[in-house]
Amino acid sequence: MDSSKHNCTEMDTRSNSSWRRFFKLWKNRSIKRLASFPPLGKSKGRSGRENPEFCNLYNFKSSLVNFSLADLQAATNNFSHENLIGKGGYAKVYKGCLQDGQLIAVKRLTKGTADEKTSGFLSELGIIAHVDHPNTAKLIGCGIEGGMHLIFQLSPLGSLGSLLHGSKDNKLDWSKRYKIALGTADGLLYLHESCQRRIIHRDIKADNILLTEDFEPQICDFGLAMWLPKQWTHHNVSKFEGTFGYFAPEYFMHGTVDEKTDVFSFGVLLLELITGRQALDDLQQSLVIWAKPLLDKDDLKELVDPSIGDNYDTEEMDRMVLTASMCIEQSPILRPRMNQVVILLRGDDRVSDCAVESPRPTFRRTYSEELLDIQEYNSTKYLSDLKQHEQVALGC
Ligand SMILES: Nc1ncnc2c1ncn2[C@@H]1O[C@H](COP(=O)(O)OP(=O)(O)OP(=O)(O)O)[C@@H](O)[C@H]1O
């Protein structure tokens, strides 16, 4: 018997059954409309409501503070090492306190030449300044004296990555993990479908999810994010950027960027929340490759983070596991869109307006869907493809 055919059929059956469960939820239960998170241009009390573009521009100009270097030095104790709270590939982030007592995070761009820093700064600013949602990082202002700086509200608990994979005694309980999954899904849905432009984040990962003191997640780091014009199905990039362990296969293979590449990364994030494991461990082993066979067998005992044990809500866990396995499907067409993810994760009763009143068509096929639809995949090929690409990419 042709084993690849066998695997392919198995995978089809599994996908079909996942989708059948989804459509059952979608059709059979009532979808309540909540006054959710309106797109920026529709917010109440803002002038220029009739003209969202103008409204955006107006808000952008009126609300952002321009900080001098002296302001930032005073706030951060002259960018002292003690105030350093984060370090990414592109920036150092310092904790600070303004004269009025407000706590801030100052992101100082560090990578590249002066021109590269300027273009990175403008690109991130251009996106984040127009993003306004409870589950995205809050930009307060910027400063261009003595370097390129973006100033955010401080997220007191730091990043999900540091909480989940940092201290051993500070493990997140299940209800917090579930809350973080839901909030992040809402934030990503907003970026994809509800804000002024269609935004692909391109670097969804645990380190880029900040947490407020009540564990509300906020998506941060829009350094790689891009606006996709509505009429474009996708964008192809030639420069390989982002974080290993979170890349969708079509990004590896073709540099294709669209909503479904973010959905894949979100699926990896869900796996991190479920398993407590890193997307790539110290031995560079991929979480997706480790988890895939366990997801296929629905082996919760092996999957679930030992620090959680049995202390979880079974229905919530089932929904998280189902959603994770759909989001990391090899073929983008089998992955749900974010408005479907929100429905899957919540069950059905608290579906936000974003899911129901998307300004863009819900089931639009993306380029990556078209591309991979014509290719035959099976579970074994998927895992070996992923392994091979990661080996090439990591040079091991
Ligand atoms: N507003 C904030 N409040 C608290 N901590 C923050 C804030 N913004 C960033 N950080 C911390 O700084 C880290 C790095 O920030 P950020 O991801 O924006 O930098 P980066 O250099 O663009 O990172 P990457 O290498 O992922 O692109 C975050 O993971 C987080 O720990």
Automatic annotation (TrEMBL):
Domain of life: Eukaryota
Domain Protein kinase: 79-363
Localisation: Cytoplasm
Enzyme Commission code: 2.7.11.1
Main location: cytoplasm
Tagged with keyword Zinc: no
List of residues binding ATP: 107
Coiled-coil stretches noted in the UniProt entry, renumbered to this chain: none
UniProt KW Transit peptide keyword: no
SMART domains found in the cross-reference section: S_TKc (SM00220)
InterPro entries: Prot_kinase_dom, Protein_kinase_ATP_BS, RBK1/2/STUNTED, Ser-Thr/Tyr_kinase_cat_dom, Ser/Thr_kinase_AS
Any GO molecular function: GTPase binding
Catalyzed chemical reaction(s): L-seryl-[protein] + ATP = O-phospho-L-seryl-[protein] + ADP + H(+); L-threonyl-[protein] + ATP = O-phospho-L-threonyl-[protein] + ADP + H(+)
Record GO cellular component, one term: cytoplasm
Keywords recorded for this protein, A-Z: ATP-binding, Cytoplasm, Kinase, Nucleotide-binding, Phosphoprotein, Serine/threonine-protein kinase, Transferase
Subunit structure comment from the entry: Interacts with ARAC5 and ARAC10.
Family: Belongs to the protein kinase superfamily.
Name assigned to this protein: non-specific serine/threonine protein kinase
Source organism per UniProt: Carya illinoinensis
Lineage per the UniProt record: Eukaryota, Viridiplantae, Streptophyta, Embryophyta, Tracheophyta
